[in-house]
């Protein structure tokens, strides 16, 4: 999506979204980045709509193993009809929601979609931490643990 002017309705929805996320008030810009630990939320807004990309902050080894789970979130019923794509970028699982500009969806529905995306990424984060502790307890490295599988 190219940076273009943000229409007033989209600007208001983003302001409401920040309020619902309990984030400090901020000026709405075409590109924004917010930390929602353990995730980063990257927002790109313009005349064509909004892109809400949520990714884990930390890079992880073998993150691609989570791709099948991430892809299940691309079903419209999971995301309240908001198109969601999933990928692994630079060792980080990422979910990307694209509510269309012309839709009747409100900031509350954007928040519900983001909350579902965040819960899934938090689950991956927690599972990876548990896996890391288990590997650390046995003294294995990622390579040694992977060779046993």
TrEMBL record:
Renumbered residue ranges of the record's region Disordered: 127-149
Biased composition (Acidic residues): 137-149
Compositional bias segments (type: Basic and acidic residues): 127-136
Protein name as catalogued: Secretion system apparatus
UniProt organism field: Pandoraea iniqua
